[in-house]
Write a structure and sequence with these properties.
CATH class: Alpha Beta
Strand order of the largest sheet: 3-2-1-4-5-7-6
Structural class: alpha/beta
Number of strands: 7
CATH superfamily: Vaccinia Virus protein VP39
Order of helices and strands: HHHEHEHEEHEHHHEHHHE
Shape: globular
Radius of gyration: 18 Å
Distance between the termini: 27 Å
Strand content: 15-25%
């Protein structure tokens, strides 16, 4: 079924401008990864741009290790952003054939400029829709999607596409925001994903609870999906985002901060969980 064209989240406009200007904090924090961070001790961390980059790299590694990625694999990174996940794999593994997919040619251009293949690895960057992947069946050993699925028009379609392009026995690993059972109604009531969220973060759907997610994955052919809740370790992200919003966004900073606070409160009270999902494709 056709769907409306996907647009890059609005915050990329401000971020790309900061990066083009050579802003040192933006480059340190988000020049490689553009997603939440993971802190082993979330109560005792300074939040400089460099600190944030370390936490974002840790989250990336945890998603990749959930697959897990191994030397010699063919890996597809959907919603690849600036190529941070592929850059991380490039440094850690050998003889990988890695393809990054994104809808935004600006992000792909930065990825191509900043990621140089080493260790016998290969990298390819393709502008494409996550729900209509331009690949033949049975092409990849691993499909990754770090903190992007909530932007896609359909989780069901993406999961079906991931299943289609994976080889039999292949693995999927992703991170996503998943509501708790008790939080689902509360998130609807407080309009998480509403107009102010769309103006700040773009189209966002965080209303797919674990039972529905599990059913969608299994319907796409994935077996025994696991959900690892890492919410407590991601919470310092919100402080960093709020602290940078006013400096980086000349327009819409107040709405961006309000939206971020709603997401943070929802996470702290248990309505919204940050989850790493991993699953295998049946043989």
């Amino acid at each position: 079924m056709a769907h409306a064209p996907i647009e890059p989240p609005p915050y990329f406009d401000a971020l790309l401008e900061r990066l083009a200007q050579g802003d040192p904090e933006a480059t340190a924090a988000l020049g490689r990864h553009v997603h939440w961070g993971y802190w082993s001790d979330p109560d005792a961390v300074p939040l400089t741009g460099a600190d944030y980059a370390v936490a974002a790299e840790e989250l990336c590694r945890r998603v990749c290790d959930a697959a897990p990625v191994r030397d010699g694999m063919r890996v597809l990174d959907v919603g690849c952003g600036f190529g941070g996940t592929i850059a991380s794999l490039n440094e850690r593994f050998k003889h990988l054939d890695m393809t990054g997919v994104n809808i935004d040619p600006r992000q792909l251009a930065r990825a191509a400029e900043t990621v140089t293949a080493i260790n016998g690895n290969r990298t390819t960057w393709i502008e494409a829709d996550a729900c209509a992947l331009p690949f033949a069946n049975d092409q990849f050993d691993v499909v990754l999607a770090v903190e992007c699925v909530f932007h896609f028009p359909s989780r069901a379609t993406f999961l079906a596409e991931a299943s289609r392009v994976l080889k039999p026995g292949g693995r999927l690993a992703l991170s996503d925001f998943v509501p708790s059972a008790e939080g689902l109604d509360a998130l609807r009531k407080h309009d998480i994903g509403g107009s102010e969220t769309r103006a700040s973060y773009g189209t966002v759907d965080v209303l797919c609870a674990e039972p529905e997610y599990r059913a969608l994955a299994q319907s796409a052919g994935f077996t025994a999906p696991t959900f690892e809740d890492i919410t407590p370790h991601t919470l310092p992200t919100y402080k960093f985002i709020r602290s940078t919003a006013a400096r980086w966004q000349a327009i819409g900073a107040d709405a961006y901060v309000r939206t971020t606070r709603r997401l943070e409160v929802s996470s702290r009270v248990g309505w919204l969980r940050y989850v790493i999902l991993s699953a295998g494709l049946g043989l």
